[in-house]
């Protein structure tokens, strides 16, 4: 079984995808980490993230980088959304994600274009969303907890800028696949969101089996 989970920054897609992976016993790939690894490599090599050739040169990063906790910081996320807009960067990371999706026994992947590009034939697709206010609140709480000195307004502006970049790019923009179930987590606890996600997946899988 292949499960595709897409959605914007801080929507809760990563948490939901990890919980689904545990529930169904599937291997999970956080595809955002791949773009974050490209971003970190661009920075480390002092390349220009807005130049496609520079960003492509950063796609042959070592796999050990994926375990580096600094990939998860906010700066790297911002830079990831810049390098991920280059079509050749997306092409360079495509086969790796498709291979992961098609492994025997199935898989779950989360990102921006899983249901639309990486696994269009997935057995279940979720599009996880929440208002930008709620997502900024979550991200702000997380940052403050980790000791960052940043205002809520700044985080909200960053989230909106990232949404615009991710949704506005020409190649594989962030968009809900026609056959994905939308899950709005704005007023849901994590437990409630995960329970709803499991219901959606079970319903989609059952509907496919009847076809
Ligand atoms: O967790 P958060 O949404 O903040 O970030 P992420 O999922 O790690 O993704 C970081 C950036 O990588 C996003 O803003 C996207 O621009 C890009 N990305 C993408 O283009 N396609 C994906 N499948 C996953 C991430």
Automatic annotation (TrEMBL):
Cell location: Cytoplasm
Enzyme Commission identifier(s): 2.7.4.25
Chief localization: cytoplasm
Domain Cytidylate kinase: from-to ranges: 3-201
Catalytic activity: dCMP + ATP = dCDP + ADP; CMP + ATP = CDP + ADP
Top class in the EC scheme: transferase
Keywords: ATP-binding, Cytoplasm, Kinase, Nucleotide-binding, Transferase
Alphabetical GO biological process terms: pyrimidine nucleotide metabolic process
Amino acids binding ATP: 7-15
GO CC terms in record: cytoplasm
MF term (GO), any: CMP kinase activity
Source domain of life: Bacteria
Record family assignment: Belongs to the cytidylate kinase family. Type 1 subfamily.
Name recorded for this polypeptide: Cytidylate kinase
Gene: cmk
């Amino acid at each position: 079984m292949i499960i595709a989970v897409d959605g914007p920054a801080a929507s809760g897609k990563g948490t939901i995808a990890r919980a689904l992976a545990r529930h169904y016993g599937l291997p999970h790939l956080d595809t955002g980490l791949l773009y974050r690894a490209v971003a970190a490599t661009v920075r480390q090599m002092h390349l220009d993230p807005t130049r496609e050739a520079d960003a492509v040169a950063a796609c042959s990063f070592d796999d050990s980088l994926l375990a580096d906790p600094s990939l998860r910081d906010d700066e790297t996320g911002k830079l990831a959304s810049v390098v991920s807009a280059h079509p050749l960067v997306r092409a360079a990371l495509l086969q790796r994600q498709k291979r992961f999706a098609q492994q025997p026994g199935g898989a779950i992947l989360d990102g921006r274009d899983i249901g639309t590009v990486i696994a269009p034939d997935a057995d279940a697709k979720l599009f996880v969303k929440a208002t930008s206010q709620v997502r900024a609140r979550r991200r702000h709480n997380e940052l403050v907890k980790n000791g960052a000195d940043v205002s809520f307004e700044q985080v909200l502006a960053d989230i909106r800028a990232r949404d615009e970049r991710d949704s506005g790019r020409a190649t594989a923009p962030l968009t809900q696949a026609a056959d994905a179930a939308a899950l709005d987590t704005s007023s849901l606890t994590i437990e409630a969101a995960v329970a709803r996600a499991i219901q959606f997946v079970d319903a989609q899988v059952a509907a496919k089996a009847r076809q």
